[in-house]
## 1
Amino acid sequence: MTRERSFRLSAAVFMAASLASCAAPIAIVTRAPVTIAAASPGAIYHPVGNAICRIANLANAEDPAKRCHAIESDGAVANVERVRAGTATFGLTQSDLAYGAYRGEGPFAATGPDRELRTVIALHRESFAVIARADSAIHTFQDLRGRRVGIGKRGAGYTFTRDVVLGFYGWTISDFDRALELGPTEQNETLCANRVDAIIFEAAHPDGLTQEATSECRARLVPVAGGPIDRLLATHPYYIASVIPGGMYEGNPADTPTFGTQTVLLTSARQPDDLVYAVAKAVLGDLADFRRLHPALSGLERKAMVPSEAVMPIHPGALRYYREAGLLP
């Protein structure tokens, strides 16, 4: 230890002792300088944000300036807004919302484009899902017209995706007999109580709420496929074809074709290259341990974690790591 570092440590100990002797009941809390806007407990972004910080903190334990903390938020849209405002270093969001925020579209039309937004890592995929009561006559997405549908809660990221899908079918919410804005737990409760015929949401699978709906309500997954979805995928590069495997949920032995989004970690071009490089290197450099931190992360592959520049530009710090690792030319 250098004399300068020893002096600083002694001074810090002296100050802490002095403060403790003057006001022992007061706890001194140091906020982590690096934050990831995640979600509230129970939502998938909450454990994913904590997993990123855990891996990053282990990799950068000797650098307090890179200490990371995942913060609660209202979800995908709010996370983008926090990064834009500079109140969070990083944020987790959907690929379609990231695309819209960079270009000032969708939920971000009023605030306009933010050309300083940058992607860092592409993470797990989430599938757009429709679950219908087994005693309903709903077997395809088209069968939802004129039905009672739980459409998700306003502000949830997937409600933007839902409206895009409706547009490709030439529908609006008014085409449902009744559209109820409900949170995830409420969706299941109303489905089981026969107050809706089906619910719409988006999730990484396997998903606990889907498991609950299919086992307790004998509900079935409905395919979201066909001409409108083919056109959606052909025109929007931030959406990807997806399949919910058969047998994953009780009473659903066949594969369910659908589509979905990819979760991305984004930041701002204002963030320093060395910080973003360190986060990307920590996660992909210790991918085996990272994948063990949550089931949604277990299938991640290094090459697929390089974000698509069709969504928005990749941050230069992350680009440097991907090139060093041989993941990009």
## 2
Amino acid sequence: MSFKTAVITKLALRNLRRQARRSLLTAASMIAGGALLIFSLILGDGTHEQWIDSAVRMADGHLTIQSPRFQGSRALKDRMPGESRAFVEQALLQGGIVGEIRVMAPRLAVTGMASSAAGARPARILGVDPAVEVSFSVLDEKVRQGRYLRPGDRLAAYVGIGLLEALDLRLGSKFVLTAQDAGGEIAGQLVRVVGTFRTGIPEVDRSLLHIPLSTAGAWLGCGGDVTSMGLLLGNSELVPQVRRSLQQRLSETHGTEALRALSWRESLPELDAAVKIDDFSNYLFQGILFGIIALGIVNTVLMSVMYRRREFGVLQALGLTPGQSASLVLVEGLILTVLSGTIGIALGLSVTWFLWGEGLDLSSMMDNEWTFSGVVMEPVVVPRFRVARMVQGLSFIFLIGMLASLYPALRAMRIDVAETMKFER
């Protein structure tokens, strides 16, 4: 630190001490703002991660490997051949991404009809590996009656409660599934209800059912083929890194058009939009809050400049340049905001960790199940602490302090030495 910089910093600290009451009032608002900022960011991150985790476990995972055409057609002709499935499984075991993958679930999805003596209803039929699916999906936790599928089941079906009621079925009832098979022919399959589930999402409960993957493959003539491979990762932050690595391997071996790794943002666009909108509203609120705080900083620093016109005149007469006068004011504003913001962030982290580190229970605000963008909200939100958010919060506060100090700094730079020396304080 040069001599001039040290002098400017010392003068800035001295002035903040001289105007202790004004400085403390502004600091208090910054501390409260910093604490609220970090609380809202880490709580928002925890909420979003909870939305994403619930949604991807109800859908096809953080990453879905499938034919590029299947996303639009949803047809068996665009399924993934058995040899491609084997290659994907091998590729996932190579390199440094295997440790990031919690579960890999093969699935065979088809749209068809479910029929009973009471009528017929459209159905989303999902062939799954029961041994894998219990670690991948949340449906096995939503049992209303009976049980989830088990390894060795052959003609079993796990059915949404809405579809069960529409077809007037009960545990042990038999009904027929009809869909277009791999050869383009209409094929039927008799199955028996072994369990029912309720997710709280009417569209899912009225249409979705699970059957064993082996049963679906034999019925539809697909053998060991699947329509997709779902990957569940440790958290959503890992998606870009794992996707890049996986897509590179798929392209090198199968070509760019053979297989594609879709992120949850592509396979669940409604959820992606909901997360972005929630982020925007949070940033908007913080922008308004810190805009008000910035006005307080402007008031504090500008009043300091106006009351010290003669002091600035004397300093400039002694050799302080207008630019250095402006630097003095900027340093005052930055010291005030950075110190206050750091204390505020530390306070926000401490309070959040000690009071809600295990989760913030919102069950008293939810009389019934609350769904948002097709996701059932859990009543307990666990905050997510990330170093990146701390850096982001400090950077934002630093920027606010700099911007709020610019106008007072310009006023200090334009002080006329001759005019200020004419008058006594």
